[in-house]
Amino acid sequence: MEIGDAFAAAMALIINFESGLAEIVLLSLQVSIIAVAIACLIGLPIGAALAVFQFPGRTAIAVILNAMMGLPPVVVGLIVYLTLSRSGPLGTLGLLYTPTAMIIAQICLVTPIIAALTRQTTEDLWQEYAEHLRSIGIGPWRAVTTLLWDNRFSLITTILAGFGRASAEVGAVMIVGGNIDHVTRVMTTSIALETSKGDLALALGLGIILLALALSVNAAAFIINDAAMKRHG
Predict the structure, then answer these.
(1) CATH for 3-232 (3.30.1130.10, 2.40.260.10, 1.10.3720.10, 3.20.20.70)
(2) Angle ∠(183,189,190) on CA atoms, nearest 5
C-alpha cells in the first residue's frame, strides 16, 4: 500500500471511528486513566510528605524517586511479569495477560514521576509558607493537605505528565499484557504490531490519534500553567 493510500485509509478509519480502532483507543484510555488515578493516590501524598517532613534518609528517598522517573519500561514489565507469573508471589491471582496487569505496570512507571514532581513543587511552597503555617498552629500532616490544595494547578500539570507517560508506554504493557486481540491490545502495542504486519492504515490511524492525544495533554498543561502564573502574578 502506498503511503498516500494508507494515510487516506487511516483518516477514513478515524472519521468513521471504526469498531476495531475504537475498541483499541477506549481500552488504552481506560488503562491509562485508571493507572494514573491510582498513581496519584499514592504519589501525591508521598511527594508532599517528603517535602514537609524531615527524617533520616529523606534525601536518599528523594534521589531514588528522581532516578526512578527514568525507569526502563521493559525492566518494569519484566519485574511485574515475574511477580504475576505462575511461579511468582502473586501468580495465584491470575492477572498476567489482563488489563489489570497493564494497569499495575503503568502504576509502577507513573507513580515515581508524580511523587518526584510533587515533592519538587511542594518543597518550594513549603519553604515559602512553612513559618506562617507553623505560626497558626498547622501541623505537618495538615500542612501536607494544605500545600497540595494550594499547589493544585501545578499538580494538574504533573498529573498530565504522568498520563502522557502512561498513554505512550509500549514495552512494559507488551510484556505483561501480551498484546492479545480484543483483550489487551492498546494503541502503542497495536502500532508496533500492525506496522510489522504491513497494515499501515490502522497503524497510521492509531498513530494520529496518539499524537493528537499527546498534543492535547501538552496544550492542557500549558494552559493550566499559564492560568496558574496569572493567578499568582
Answers:
(1) 1.10.3720.10
(2) 80
